[in-house]
Write a structure and sequence with these properties.
The structure is a single chain. It contains 5 helices and 5 strands, in the order βαββααααββ. By secondary structure, the protein is α+β, with helices and mostly antiparallel strands. The protein has one domain. A 5-stranded mixed beta sheet has the order 1-2-3-4-5. α3 crosses α4. The two termini are 22 Å apart.
């Protein structure tokens, strides 16, 4: 298994946002692992843990072949901005943007998961 695990510590200088999932760069950089089933990118962010997992390498490779960094950034920004205009928190808008970019896992081959429980042990897929 290949994995990239890190934190998203947003200081008060950066807006103090809590529970932020992945950036558009994080999503796009997953392309480096698209051919390896089970590859994971994980972010610990405030009270939550998020993961992107390659579930189907063939679909993931096709997804990244059809979505370069510029397209990922554009889709991400548009979805984030729309969610914020709709009154969602930065954290909710961020998760909406990730889902908008990768779509349903059955199509992209990429699963998007989050953990809400206090022990951070129960992943919930958010893009079935």
């Amino acid at each position: 298994m290949v994995g990239d695990v890190r934190t998203h510590p947003y200081s008060s200088d950066e807006g103090g946002y809590y529970n932020m999932a992945f950036s558009s760069d994080d999503v796009s950089n997953l392309r480096d692992y698209a051919d390896k089933k089970g590859s994971i990118k994980m972010v610990e962010a405030g009270g939550r843990r998020f993961a992107l997992v390659i579930l189907d390498p063939e679909k993931a490779k096709d997804f990244f072949k059809n979505n370069d960094l510029k397209q990922v950034k554009s889709k991400f920004k548009e979805a984030f901005d729309n969610a914020r205009k709709a009154g969602k928190s930065p954290s909710q808008a961020n998760s909406d943007a990730v889902r908008a970019v990768i779509g349903k896992s059955k199509d992209s081959g990429i699963g998007f998961y989050r953990i809400d429980d206090k022990k951070k042990l129960k992943f919930i897929q958010t893009n079935k």
